[in-house]
Amino acid sequence: MPKDEIPPGTLYMLILKTLVRHGEMHGYEIARAIEQLSEEVLHVEEGSLYPALQRMLVKGWVEAYWGVTAGNRRARYYLPTKLGRKQLEIEVRQYQRVGAAIARVLGTA
Amino acid sequence: MALLPRFRMLVHRRQFDRDLEEEMRLHLDLQKQQQIVEGLSADDARTAAQRQFGNTTLLQEECRDAYGWQWLEEFARDLRYAARSMLRTPGFTAVAIVALALGIGANAALFSVVNAVLLRPLAYRDAGRLVTILHNGRNPVAPANYVDWRAQSNSFTDMGAAEFWTPNLTRDDPPEHIRGLRLTQGMLPLVGVEPLLGRWFEPGEDRKGSEHVVILSYRLWQRRFAGDPNILLRSLILDGEAYQVVGVMPRDFQFAPFWATRTELWAPLPLADRIQSRDGNSLRVFGRLKPEVGLGQARAEMAALTARLEREHPGTNRQVMVTPLKENVVGKVETPLLLLLGAVGFVLLIACANVAHMLLARAATRQKETAVRAALGARHGRLFRQFLTESAFLGACGGIAGLALAVAGTRALIALSPARIPRVETVTIDTDVLLFLLGTTVLTCLAFGLAPAMQAARLDITSGLKDAALGSSDGAGRGRARKFLVASEFALAVVLLVGAGLMVRSFFALQAIDPGFNPHHVLSLIVSVAGSKEAGPDRRAIFYRQLVDRVRTLPGVESAAAINHLPLAGDLWTRGLTIEGRPEPRPGEEPDAVYRVITPGYFHAMRLPLLRGRDFTGNDDTRAPGVVIINDRAAKAYWPGEDPVGKHVSLRSRTQREWLTIIGIATDAAEADWAARAVPEIYLATFQNRDYLADRGAYITLVARTAGDPAALTSVVKNVVWSFDPNLPISEIVTMDGVISEANAEPRFEMLLLSVFAAVALVLAAVGIYGVMSYSVSRRTHEIGIRMSLGGTRTQVLWMVVRQGMWLALAGSAAGIGGALALSRLMTGVLYGVRPTDPLTFSAVAIGLAAVALVATYIPARRATRIDPMSALRYE
Predict the structure, then answer these.
(1) What pTM value is reported for the model?
(2) ipTM higher than threshold 0.95
């Protein structure tokens, strides 16, 4: 079944939220977690996920280290930094504000 | 953005890519498993996973982009590409780099000289406020005037004065005639350079009797005393008197800066009884402007002050000028140096034009490549950047080669430069020069790289692909730009060649000047007697006479004599004259003359013909009546229409008047400046002149005419001098030819440099037109083939190509002649005996350049006639 793309600008927020909730995860786990938590509505494109993770590394919102998966494979695990948690708060607040505003617009329509 | 992770990524790029790949693989595998779990077959799962994943390369690129290094990657790619394409055409690359290196290197080398000589401030404290106060801006001042000015002016924090002094350093081996200066006590504090060792002169040390202290230059300290750290405990014997060393100046200290520049020691100047003297102008006066006083204000004050003093003491305070010290130091070389800098700038412009049109031609042959790249999606900006990178690469190579050339060129310039260029010893490749080189290189890259890059970026894809495929003649616009560049090369080359031609003509005019005497085979040297046993007035006359006689009888010496100051090389002393029977002249109109003191036989030894009368003889001594010989100019100026022989003159002096009888008239001889017009001159007899024989700083300039090479006799003559007294210092050993060559060193230097620049310009312009014509012929092979197969003759083809090339050359030359007419006026000050619009130079340059252009176009034109119509039609 077709899945919805993630609305632009919210990917960072979703990744950060997932990481804050679950602690460290590798890329595939993050993608799966978002899909599952959204009850398979949202679909994370790998083509967006990994560049986004790299950008977040550069910005210092997440840290990464190499670990071993349950299946005994090497994997890069990501975990949120203090800066990342702060960024999450900012983005959530912003999203709620915009969301509420959009809802009001739609409500008056 | 955080810099550390970004740099880490840059350094560990391979690792970064491997990590990403591993991450992707894991993702794919996990996705596949997931899909198998969801019920797909293994194969389907893999394709599904892969499909979903999309383009891994793109993804990796995007991940890398997160770190913001795309520009660097693109740049590195462009650079690699540029290097590859340059290496593919080694001939083109070599020509371009050589042209750029010549242009950039020559500019940097000349700039290093201009920077050191003209731009850098003098090495004194706050040197911009230092001025000289001199008659006519350069002539020395009488002691009483200096004293008055210092006491009565308000514009200066202080004034100081310096007087020429060349003492004999004896009792150290070997004896030496040393260039020194005597300074008023405040002179060194005025320029404000602290001694390296010891101290400045103290107040009172310039009082008579206390003046026996001396400050050494670093050079003298090293040269004569091996840098003795206890030098301050020593004393020197100067002119037979003991002087205590009280200081050593730093290595790069030079004073005075515009005259007596090679001074090696300084002693106090006791003015003593001379403090009242308004005769004997011997002081160079320096001042420091008060911080709140401008130059104009100081000039106004001094003008008023000297006008008042002139009324009190007529004839003593005329034409007193306040000049910034730096202007006195560099004023004379400013125009020639700026002229040369302008010329070398033209060379760089020509080099730029050359490289630009070569790049344009190359861009044209690469039209197809560019069009293909554009068709495949390269953005215009990207193409622009790539072409600019190629130019920058070329420019950087040129700049680096230019730096090497500048280092060598600067050395050559210093070696070639005439000694008279001030401060040339301070020329170095410093940060200023490096910045200049960098700036020039960047500007150069933009100048020659922008046009081809813009053309490449603007290219219309379809026509580009078509044009290239057809191998047709040039697209009109590009051809025009290239032709314009070649024509401007010719224009610039004409300007340079005219400049060089004028300098050459001027130089030959200088060479043709008759100095009045025959300078070949003449050896000259200075023997100083001050402080020796020969110094006594009675002893001195005998010694001079014996010395000249002994030298005259040496084998290989034809004749010998002595003079106080050698023409051109020595000092120039001027005295006022009183002519018997004439009314007292009005102030400012007193006759004066350069005066030289000679022994009998001087005119013979110098081959300076006597026009009338007789030479001095050995009998013209202190017991005989006073006699004098004048030069032709003095005869014509002061006795117009009369015969001066037998008339009487007297040297102007306040104390005594002794009439001297004129016994002869000599040919005008060169004085201090080679190209200057003759001035009145009088010759006095050495053995008759009590003042000269009693003068404290006594020395004599020996001249010997030799049969063979004069320099070969140097050691023999020296031994003759030392056979009288081994303590006699000998200095200034020169040949008269050498003196004249030195006098012409500056014009020779300018001529040489300008000629080199013009030659480079000519070669570049020739290469330019040759390149354009060859290129045009090769592009038009197809067209020429058609013409010939349709019955065009070889002559017609030859004529067509030559006409095209010559048209460019002639149009450029015509513009250049216009430019040269406008610009050569700037050279008026450095030319001698030739007008800046000299028709001979202009026509010679025009004809010469046309000939070069003809050869440069004829070669490719002939190649065009050899085109075989059949193969030409099949071409491409």
Answers:
(1) 0.78
(2) no
